[in-house]
Every structure is written in structure tokens, then in C-alpha cells.
Amino acid sequence: MKNKGFTLIELLAVIVILAIIALIATPIILGIINDARNSSKQRTAELVAKEAELAYTSYLFKNNGTGEPSDFCKYMTNDYFEMDSATLDPNGCVDESKQEVKVKGDNGVEYTVKYEKGSVTVHADNLKDVTTKLSSK
């Protein structure tokens, strides 16, 4: 009568091989996941910059073309900034001399949006700043 099945040595060899594959693959997979998260955060920063540009355009449209890019605290409000994947800080532009607001992305990242010399810059920790130029009329 023949015994069918695997020996303990064969099973241990397969488990060791699988463990080695898992040890090699885990850092690679974690790196890919981390790169995807960073890419998502960077893309959200770019979208926030574009939305700030659209908020300014909407502000001009609703005010018959009157306004300047430096009216930052007037157009960086929920009336003009309408982004599905990010929300403005409810306090808005608290200090007009600072010309900046906080935006919270749905990815949990807080972005600082700042107006300076005709441009809006979006900053977040560990990300490259995104700047967009606002054209006045």
C-alpha cells in the first residue's frame, strides 16, 4: 500500500520558499503604495492651485470684472472655492495681511494656500510647492 501526501520536509521547504518571496516582495509593495500616496497628495495640491485660479475667475465674473488677484481673502471663500476633494478652513483668511488660507484635502493632508505677487502657491509638508499665476483682467 502506497502512502500518498507530502513529507514534513517538503512542506517546510515550500513554507521557507514562500517566506523568502514574501520578505523580498513586501518592501517593494510598500514602496509602490507610498509612491501612490505621495502622487495623490501632489495631484491634490495641483488641483487646489487650479481651484484657487477658478475661484478668482468666478469672483471676477460675479463682480462684473472688478477685482484684483490681491483680493485673495475675498475670493478664497466657500462662495467661490468649490472643490469636491478639499475644503477650506472654516476660519478662512483670518489675517488679510498674511494672505493665506488652509485647505484640508480628503486625503487628510492640510495644504497652505498663499497669495504673493500675482501668484498663488500651495504648500504641504514633504511635497513640492505648486504655484499658479493669476492674471488680472
CA-CA gap between termini: 93 Å
Oligomer: single chain
Count every helix, treating DSSP H or I runs of 4 or more residues as helices. Answer: 2
Q: Walk across the major sheet and give the strand order.
A: 1-2-3-4-5
Q: Total strand count, please?
A: 5
**Mean pLDDT reading:** 90
How many domains would you count in the coordinates?
1
Order of SSEs: HHEEEEE
- Helix coverage percent: 40-55%
Per the principal axes of the C-alpha atoms, what is the gross shape? rod-shaped
What profile does the largest beta sheet have? 5 strands, antiparallel
In the predicted model, the low-confidence regions spanning at least 5 consecutive residues are none
Rg (C-alpha, Å)? 25 Å
Strand content: 15-25%
**What class do helices, strands and sheet pairing give?**
alpha+beta
Overview of this protein structure:
It is a single chain. This protein is of the alpha+beta class. It has one domain (9-133). It contains 2 helices and 5 strands; from the N terminus they run H-H-E-E-E-E-E. It has helices spanning 8-62, 72-75, and strands spanning 86-88, 100-105, 110-116, 119-123, 130-133. It has a 5-stranded antiparallel beta sheet with strand order 1-2-3-4-5, with helices on one face. The chain is rod-shaped. The N and C termini lie far apart (93 Å). The model has no long low-confidence stretch (mean pLDDT 90).
